[in-house]
Design goal:
This protein has 293 residues and is mainly beta. It folds into two domains: 181 residues, Immunoglobulin-like; 94 residues, Immunoglobulin-like (Sandwich), CATH 2.60.40. 8% of the residues lie in helices and 44% in strands. Strands 4, 5, 7, 8, 10 and 11 form a six-stranded antiparallel β-sheet that branches. Strands 1-2-3-9-6 form a five-stranded antiparallel β-sheet, with helices on one face. A hairpin with a 7-residue loop joins strand 2 and strand 3. The longest helix is centred in the middle third of the chain and has 10 residues. The chain starts with a helix and ends in a 7-residue tail after the last strand.
């Protein structure tokens, strides 16, 4: 059962979230002001860590911290044809809303059943919250992830973090959060950027070319990861060429929302990540955008 769940598509997994998986979660330690305490299951554990120092615009930052045992893996936001994308529902929070869950650069994993995008080491997903009212802030969140070794364990836990007025971090939370944000893909620059991106709904294909840095560690191959709005599904990208500092991929689109986007739909973006060793860039493009210049 667990092995078969690990090979389900993200769309099928969404239908299974309501299934009872809380039995996989051990008792949580008492929550402190900035740390929910660890929830544990076979192969790993996770917690919610918050930096209480809000920005002037009311932004509060945190992380969903997933600690994996050696040999265990977890999934990126769009794993591909198999896997459980990480999910966090903070709708029950008080005076704060979750605006964005961010994703560090993933790696390509071949587990013998499928090829997918994910993480083979402990990972922290940065979170951006926005304050919506005055008074005490309470973050209440339900996290649902999948972690796998030879089997896949669906892992669900409820977290609560109370942020009293004037909370001061003294347990390392700010450095944990800052480090997680620092590990996100960098913005494209002159030496590392996407040169062209062509989305063709009719032929169900995506073509992407990226300019690579001049310095490149020996034996390192560039990789591409693509995620789209709900309804999109992508096959693993195929590296077509890698020469003269330019890498080109084609991506077969295995699923499109109905109706398929045409000349661009407001708010419907494709998220693109290109990795080269320890470096990664990330950007978002409207689904119907013409080729980049």
């Amino acid at each position: 059962m667990l092995k078969s769940l690990c090979r389900l598509s993200p769309r099928r997994v969404l239908l299974l979230i309501a299934a009872p998986v809380t039995a996989l979660v051990l008792a949580l330690s008492p929550a402190s002001a900035l740390d929910s305490g660890w929830a544990e299951t076979e192969g790993g554990r996770m917690r919610l860590v918050i930096d209480p120092a809000a920005d002037q615009d009311g932004t509060i930052r945190g992380v969903l911290d997933i600690d994996l045992e050696p040999g265990w893996k977890t999934y990126w936001r769009d794993p591909g044809s198999a896997g459980i994308p990480p999910m966090l529902d903070a709708s029950a929070s008080r005076n704060v809303v979750l605006e964005t869950m961010h994703y560090p650069p993933p790696v390509r994993v071949d587990d013998g059943y499928a090829i997918w995008a994910g993480y083979t080491a402990p990972v922290r997903f940065p979170l951006t919250f926005r304050r919506t009212g005055s008074g005490r802030v309470q973050i209440r969140a339900m996290a649902f992830v999948g972690i796998c070794e030879k089997i896949c364990v669906p892992f669900q836990a409820d977290f609560t973090v109370d942020l009293a007025e004037g909370s001061v971090a003294d347990d390392g939370a700010p450095s944990i959060v800052a480090d997680a944000f620092a590990r996100l893909p960098e913005a494209p620059g002159a030496d590392f950027k996407v040169e062209t991106a062509r989305f063709d709904a009719e032929s169900k294909s995506l073509e992407i070319a990226a300019r690579l840095p001049g310095f490149r560690p020996s034996g390192v191959t560039p990789d591409l990861f693509v995620a789209g709005p709900q309804g999109f599904a992508f096959a693993p990208p195929q590296l077509v060429s890698d020469e003269a500092g330019l890498a080109t991929w084609t991506v077969r689109i295995e699923g499109l929302p109905e109706p398929a986007p045409d000349a661009g739909v407001a708010g419907e973006n494709l998220d693109i990540v290109v990795t080269l060793g320890q470096r990664a860039i990330g950007l978002s493009l409207p689904t119907g955008r013409a080729p980049l210049n």
